[in-house]
């Protein structure tokens, strides 16, 4: 006997229920002064850039363009951003991928559980000693510093994964011609969707005990809409966008070797399905507005670095065109 294939709307409802079930059970994981010092990795310069907004030095890893070009691609980490190195240098071949390209890679280090936003205040649930002001740093302080070392301060590109997908789009939307190209890999681009504020609250608590109320306030606070790409999409007119999300089906980068790998894979599958639903919703809004966006929906892919590396490679030609490299 052959079973009838569910209608498209039924399948999407089933995926939505499954995604949010997994999401609830498994929290979302997935300056003008400064100086450069040698990095342990060949070809990567470590710059300590002072942020007046956060009153601290922010490490930034920079890979210089091979031909002296002054355009820059900012690469932003996800929720579990480390304090010692950019995940892009640890988990992907991004440095090698762009080594012969005539652009500079700019990879800020840090931003754990921050959504790269300007928070209202320090997180009150984990004794954070200062207030995150990442948007100010990325849109003002860091570009000003880059201008002092021969990297242009406008017409650059920014790409972010997971947590940083929406942040990359907001930087492009809100800061004139600082960023004329933005890419989101497995981002959450419909933050006002039912259930999303609760999932983000769980994610921040899971990753270091951060309090979402100190970031954007309660779900009815205007800050949520201000950071929701599906809401601020009209401000992306004139920008070049690359937007991707996987299917949630494990592929070539998923390896099951230990029992814990089943847990991590299930988590990554659920997270990616939530991202896919968010991204499809954003596309509907963006298409209605006629935004200049390229979409990538690979048939396999979960919330993991190998798939983000693949999508960066897919985005690379458009990034080089946008930066004139």
From TrEMBL:
InterPro entries assigned to the protein according to its UniProt record, in alphabetical order: AB_hydrolase_fold, Esterase-like, Mycobacterial_A85_antigen
Top-level taxonomic group: Bacteria
MF terms (GO), sorted A to Z: diacylglycerol O-acyltransferase activity; trehalose O-mycolyltransferase activity
Leader sequence segment: none
Keywords assigned: Acyltransferase, Transferase
Record-listed E.C. numbers: 2.3.1.122, 2.3.1.20
Gene3D superfamilies hit by this protein: alpha/beta hydrolase
PANTHER family in UniProt: DIACYLGLYCEROL ACYLTRANSFERASE_MYCOLYLTRANSFERASE AG85A, ENTEROCHELIN ESTERASE-RELATED
Protein's name in the database: Diacylglycerol O-acyltransferase/trehalose O-mycolyltransferase
């Amino acid at each position: 006997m052959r079973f009838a294939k569910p209608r498209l709307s039924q399948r999407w409802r089933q995926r939505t229920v499954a995604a949010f079930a997994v999401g609830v059970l498994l929290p979302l994981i997935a300056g003008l002064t400064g100086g450069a010092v040698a990095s342990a990795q060949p070809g990567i310069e470590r710059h300590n850039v002072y942020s007046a907004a956060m009153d601290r030095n922010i490490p930034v890893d920079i890979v210089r363009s091979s031909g002296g070009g002054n355009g820059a691609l900012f690469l932003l980490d996800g929720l579990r951003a480390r304090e010692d190195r950019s995940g892009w240098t640890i988990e992907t071949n991004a440095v090698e991928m762009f080594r012969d390209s005539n652009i500079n890679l700019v990879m800020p280090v840090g931003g754990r559980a921050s959504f790269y936003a300007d928070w209202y205040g320090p997180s009150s649930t984990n004794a954070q000693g200062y207030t995150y002001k990442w948007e100010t740093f990325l849109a003002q302080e860091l570009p000003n510093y880059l201008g002092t070392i021969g990297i242009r301060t406008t017409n650059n590109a920014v790409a972010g994964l997971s947590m940083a997908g929406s942040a990359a789009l907001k930087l492009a939307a809100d800061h004139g011609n600082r960023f004329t190209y933005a890419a989101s890999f497995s981002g959450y681009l419909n933050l006002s969707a039912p259930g999303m504020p609760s999932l983000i609250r769980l994610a921040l608590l899971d990753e270091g005990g951060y309090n979402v109320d100190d970031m954007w306030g309660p779900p009815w606070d205007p800050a949520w809409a201000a950071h929701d790409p599906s809401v601020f999409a009209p401000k992306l007119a004139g920008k070049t966008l690359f937007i991707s999300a996987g299917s949630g089906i494990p592929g070539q980068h998923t390896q099951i070797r230990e029992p814990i790998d089943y847990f991590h894979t299930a988590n990554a599958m659920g997270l990616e399905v939530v991202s896919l639903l968010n991204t499809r919703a954003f596309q509907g809004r963006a298409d209605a507005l006629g935004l200049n966006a390229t979409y990538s929906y690979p048939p396999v892919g979960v919330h993991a670095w190998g798939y983000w590396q693949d999508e960066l490679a897919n985005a690379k030609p458009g990034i080089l065109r946008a930066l004139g490299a």
